[in-house]
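User: I'm putting together a teaching handout on how multi-component assemblies are represented. Below are the sequence lines for each component of a complex, exactly as they appear in our records. Could you produce the 3D structure of the whole assembly as structure tokens, so the students can see both representations side by side? Please keep the chain order the same as the input.
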Amino acid sequence: MKYLSLVWAGLWRRKTRTAFTLLSVLAAFLLFGLLGAVRSAFDAGDQLAGANRLIVSSRLSITQALPIALLPRIQAVPGVKEVAWANWFGGYYQHPTPFFPNFAVSNNYLAVYHDLFALPPAQAKAFAETQDGAVVGAALAKQFGWKLGQRIPLIAGIFPRKDGSNGWTFQIVGIFKTPNARLKGAEQDFLFHWKYFDEGNAYMRNLAGWYVVTLDNPARAGDVARAIDAISQNSDHETKTQTEQAFQAAFAKQIGDIGLIAGGIMAAVFFTLLLLTGNTMAQAVRERIPELAVLKTLGFQDGAVLALVLAESVTLILLGGVLGMGLADLIIPGLNTALAGAFPALPGLGWHGWLSALGLMLMIGLVVGVLPALRGMRLRIVDALAGR
Amino acid sequence: MNTLHGALIEIRDLSKSYLRGKQSVPVLQGVNLDVATGDFFALMGPSGSGKSTLLNLIGGLDAPSAGSIVIGGQRIDRLGAAALARWRAANVGFVFQFYNLLPMLSAQKNVELPLLLTKLSASERRKRAAIALQLVGLADRASHKPSELSGGQQQRVAIARAIVTDPELLVCDEPTGDLDRASAEDVLSLLQQLNREHGKTIVMVTHDPRAAEHASHMVHLDKGELVGATRVSAPA
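Assistant: Of course. Below is the structure of the complete assembly, with chains in the same order as your input.
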């Protein structure tokens, strides 16, 4: 501890350089925290026990639709309380961007997701009674300036109408809010009737993209999932029943192997960080060779000089790293709010994430510090004092 | 170090050579020298005469090529690097031409540096550093960084750092070489005071005859050999 002031003073010898290096370490560990959470979200998965809702989708691919004929058979599985279903529509309003999720849903979909979609009873009734009715999130309505009763044309990105046109018209009959602040991202959703879609599109009939199953007893989620998947075993439409989290992960994985992408980014970030901080430490020690020589002159042994430089390097990385991870921990709840519905919920960093980050900080600190520290340790006092 | 009446430093047949490429260049040759306990000893000579090399060998900063160096009864030329570092910490105070203070530390923290190697508590370290700064007349500058002090003040902080562990021997390499006349006089007076009132044995390298006049003995080096000794004044 008595050397701490020496380490701290050495660290801030060049304040601007240290501040910039700290910022890069902070940025690297902020990314580490966020991408680690993304990886965890996508790797999460198949913990069925305790789940309130299960998603039944094609075992082959989530882009593969399932026959609507499965509905009564799933409803008949013991433990199943209610079954809703939906299809991805993939339409857009005027321009492909900004993107917003839009689904064709069963009549009971809003009830099954009552925690996501809070709709006044009169609007829910209007939705049930209007064939081309749509309900939209408050954030989405605000974004495009949509009002109740307005007719909205969406352009089909995937499913043209039977007449070959891409224009689908909907009447806004409800604007919902999402009560849970963590799931506010769901207010970007656009929902309309599956029947309207099923009867109007040119490509598919009597097919559901996925089923949503609510349970009598969440503790029996595993048994129910196995029973549902057994229905279509050895058929051409085998199902995979999983948690919402796992389903969302699979959905987002359509754009690529998220874990691999996140891992690649992290590797690139930390390689750059190694070069950057390694260079900073080498420069810092090179400038201070005479000062290290003075310490050795005063009686500091080789090991002490080595330890001082390494401690400085580790402190630098720990400081930036802890700030970066702390920031990631603060940002994740906000990201979950913003991305709810479109992206699997990111888990908090937790002790495991912090422990692995601290291990990484320690390792990077030692790796970038070791060469400058060895240089400091090996310096010959007489040469160093003479500036040789 | 316990050499109450004898020589504190005994140097016999001391040689030092450096390798320049494949060639061995002799810097000191067959030097024999005794420095009595409590002496203020000036080493003089032109540039390249080997005086700084001799001072480095006496301070345990370098190892001789041949010969022996006994300081306070200890053959320091036979000590390994770690033992030599411990010996320096316990027995020698160093004063350099360019002060060599750590720029990011206050005067107080600079003076405390050698005490970090002891088992003293933080409060005891602070107390001793304060006393050393008081002794060199800089108690009121304890919190100042070196950049906030004049050259003479920085050198006095360096002297406080050199004496804070109460070593018997001070080695000073051109301690006034970077100072104006008035500051140099202050520093030399301070060294003289440490020698006379506190019994410190001082070996000082200088090429300034006026600085050497503050010493009690003076030896000249030329081309690596001792060429003459002069008694300047009565030792402390």
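A couple of points students might notice: The beta strands of chain B are 7-20, 23-36, 40-44, 66-71, 74-75, 92-95, 169-173, 201-205, 217-222, 225-231. DSSP finds seven helices and ten strands in chain B.
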